[in-house]
Amino acid sequence: MLTQAQALADELVHLRRDIHAHPEISFTEQRTAALVVATLNELGGIAVRTGVAKTGVVGEFGNADGPTIAMRADMDALPILEATGLSFASTNPGLMHACGHDAHTAMLLGATHLLRERFANGELCGRVRLLFQPSEEAWDVEGKSGGLRMVEEGVMDGVDAVIALHVDSTLPLGKVTIRSGWTSAAVDDFRGEILGSGGHGASPHEGTDPLFMLIPVLTALYGIRARRIDPVEPSIVSVGVVNGGHATNVIPSAVRIEGTMRSYSAQVREQLVAEVERAFAVSRAYGGDYRLKIGRGYPAGWNDGRVADWMEQVAHDLLGSEAFDRSAPGLGAEDFAYMTQKAPGAMLLLGAARDDGVVRAHHTPIFDIDERCLPLGAAILAETAARFLRGEVGL
Questions:
Q1: Fewer CB within 10 Å: N-end or C-end of the chain?
Q2: pLDDT per position as a tens digit, 91-115
Q3: Residue 24 is among the residues annotated as catalytic for this protein
Q4: What's the pTM?
């Protein structure tokens, strides 16, 4: 499978660069979806649905004589001004594929090509469902991401297993990370205001000062992880926005604080929400008040042990025993978690760092990958699916 994937390398690079040069923000991936549809139609024998979850594409092929495996790739870009200097850099100013979704889409198209050949040779029994998902990076006005909307529109109905991969621009080429259990965190955000009366800077005693209250509220927020949560439970509370005041001699009437909460377990997730509320309530002890809105984000992602084992064995067979990076999971979030709530599934992290010593972190203007990872990812996806459809691995 890897040898055949390497033969597709030039085409995969072409697809990735085409998508990279034309990034589209969440739920606007019209051009990307059209490219996906055109490529699937060229391969032939694939039933294609468009407009799924607004701009997503679902493809399906195979036969009814076996199980169904789904493979997912995300398609959306980020609102970042690219600074890579690449010959195929973004032609849409202010938008950039800074997380590798262009590569994910290209690799899934490559895996589709490889699997279509296997079905044509009569090697496989069952069905493959292709999920080209919009909007992994953002929510719509109803607070729903592309992954959630796809699940709500039934793309996981009848699916027996689901797999995906994500490039890692900090992991060396040829390395992979795959683990059972928690693999991404639940993410919620908070948007609050500390409220006071405000007043003249020369007469602070005549009113209540929300900037003064800010210090104990921030202390309480940062104390949640240290003093309120079981220290063996992974979690974090981070403040990303503090804003208040416009003039040196005016005490403002409100200060805005916004941040994120990350966790794995459902119990800790609910505790974080309650503790953030308690932290803002500290303002009342100083004569102020608060407003607080909690935004619910993605659930924590769980890699099914059996599916993770398949992917690990495939990576071992294709890349060798030295390929594995055993780093602990972080607290990043991924809406692939909605899909693994519906069927056993797993996501693999694929090393894609360029070997020039420059760190090109995700979500930065200089993000980039070593494109030699593209056939590796296509082969891992295709071989994992093929073994399942040949009955070599099971649930």
A1: C
A2: 999 999 999 999 999 999 999 999 9
A3: no
A4: 0.94
